[in-house]
Amino acid sequence: MKLLVDSTRGKVLFAEASKDVVDFLFTLLSLPVGAVIKLLSKDGMVGSLGKLYESVENLDDTYLQPNLNKDMLLAPKATVAGANILPLLTNNNVDPNAKKLYMCQYCSNHNISDVYGTCCPNCNNSMYAEVTFVSPTAPTTVARPSEGGYVKAVVTYMVMDDLEVKPMSTISSIAMLNKFNVKEVGALEEKVVNLGMEEGLKLLKASLETSAVLTKVFLGNKKA
């Protein structure tokens, strides 16, 4: 990702981003709150959600409904289809096409669940026997295969400091310079940055704290 930085103000004006970066940013919207807190750690959360998360962690199972597993709240799964960013944020290289499912080991009923320990509707025992769902390999066709994710790779995208995303063009770039009242072009600098696990977590956290996300993450502006 290429950043256009106003060196006089120490601010990122906007970034030139690829499809992969935009898919990553859009997928942040699909993360359940519990998953966000788990990724950032409860102590690093702004406000009271960290304490709420800790309350569930510390609550004895005696007080929970018999068919409830704490992971349903503490580590919920994103349900929106699209780019899979959890391996990026967790440094987990598990095959995203593999999904864990569970059956009851006490009866011949074929009910399955994707939540470990779900109560079997047939015999009321907990479903612990793991089975694995594997997506079939997509057939080879003459047509161009789907790129996956959320956006197409036909253009480069512009990502603003506050994470607003729009297709990039020469006209839009000039318009942005006018919007920010840039008078000294010589004060502008291009900075190439990588988006890995560490940067991904910082972007997620900064997006909950400030509207100057790129500036805070990549320039280290603590006042942003």
Overview of this protein structure:
By secondary structure, the chain is an alpha+beta fold. The protein has a domain at about 1-30 and about 150-220. Helix content is about 30%, strand content about 15%. It has a five-stranded antiparallel beta sheet, sandwiched between helices. It has a three-stranded antiparallel beta sheet with strand order 4-3-5, with no helix packed on it. Helix 7 packs antiparallel against helix 8. The chain is elongated and about 75 Å long. InterPro entries: DUF674 (IPR007750). This is DUF674 domain-containing protein. Pfam families: DUF674 (PF05056).
* Strand content bin: 15-25%
Strand order of the largest sheet: 7-6-2-1-8
The main pleated sheet reads as: 5 strands, antiparallel
Number of helical elements: 8
Q: Got a strand count? A: 8
| Mean of pLDDT | 79
Helices and strands, in order, run as: EEHHHHHEEEEEHEHH
Residue runs with pLDDT of under 50 for 5 or more positions: 93-97, 137-144
Give the overall shape, derived from the CA principal axes: elongated
Task: Give the oligomeric state of the chains in this entry, treating copies of one chain as homo and distinct chains as hetero.
Answer: single chain
Measured between the Cα atoms of the first and last residue, the distance is 20 Å
Share of helical residues: 25-40%
Indicate the radius of gyration in whole angstroms. Answer: 22 Å
Structural class estimated from helices and strands: alpha+beta
InterPro entries: DUF674
Protein name: DUF674 domain-containing protein
Pfam family, one: DUF674
